[in-house]
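FORM 12-B: Structure-to-Sequence Request
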């Protein structure tokens, strides 16, 4: 996240436009005139299926079949069952190790492409699921293992976005058909739905709305001193 432009609060909901590394994202925060509320939601950058049913050889696990989706960053998706694990009951360490092995294997065996920025054409991590991709009113559970074997406490905003894009691409859900996603680590819930079909380069894409609970965790104060020679910022030629 770079920074956001925060407008004066408006009732019943305030739109906050955020400038993220992947592009502009608009969040919508309930406001009753006194304080913000829940659920908070956001509209994603264009999300798309980069590859489906991709066969990958994972050392220690053999051949697996993965989907690769983009929701602001790229993730590989597969059921934990393919790796001999259960996303809901297996030890987190075992899930992390298996997901990391998949990430490294995909990086070596599949080249990613981003329509606008090759700086974004990298695999951020692997999301292991319970395999329940077809539409259901029941939550579907996943665990996101990203960066340097980090585990998200939530179902993951960009991950839910990418998973919705994949499900829409496969015809498993329709526009405005909401699904609920559960984190296997904390049990927290996000809701996601594709709200608009669009194009992103050569990809058929969707704008995804993700909603969930949000709580304040801290504040920051930035100070500008008059004698600071770079107080107005700088740019490179």
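FORM 12-B RESPONSE
SEQUENCE OUT:
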């Amino acid at each position: 996240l770079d920074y956001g432009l925060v407008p004066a609060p408006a009732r019943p909901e305030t739109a906050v436009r955020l400038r993220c590394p992947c592009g502009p994202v608009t969040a919508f925060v309930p406001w009753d005139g006194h304080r913000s509320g829940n659920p908070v939601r956001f509209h994603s950058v264009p999300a798309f299926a980069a590859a489906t049913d991709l066969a990958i050889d994972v050392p220690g696990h053999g051949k697996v079949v993965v989907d690769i989706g983009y929701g602001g960053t790229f993730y590989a998706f597969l059921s934990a069952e393919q790796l001999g694990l259960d996303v809901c009951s297996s030890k987190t360490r075992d899930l992390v190790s298996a997901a990391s092995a998949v990430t490294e294997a995909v990086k070596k065996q599949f080249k990613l492409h981003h329509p606008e920025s090759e700086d974004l054409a990298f695999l951020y991590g692997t999301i292991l699921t319970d395999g329940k991709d077809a539409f259901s009113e029941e939550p579907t559970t996943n665990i996101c293992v990203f960066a340097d074997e980090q585990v998200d406490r939530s179902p993951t905003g960009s991950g839910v976005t990418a998973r919705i894009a994949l499900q829409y691409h496969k015809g498993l859900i329709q526009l405005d058909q909401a699904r609920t996603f559960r984190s296997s680590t904390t049990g927290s819930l996000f809701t996601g739905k594709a709200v608009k079909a669009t194009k992103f380069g050569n990809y058929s894409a969707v704008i995804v709305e993700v909603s969930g609970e949000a709580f304040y965790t801290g504040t920051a104060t930035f100070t500008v001193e008059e004698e600071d020679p770079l107080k107005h910022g700088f740019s490179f030629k």
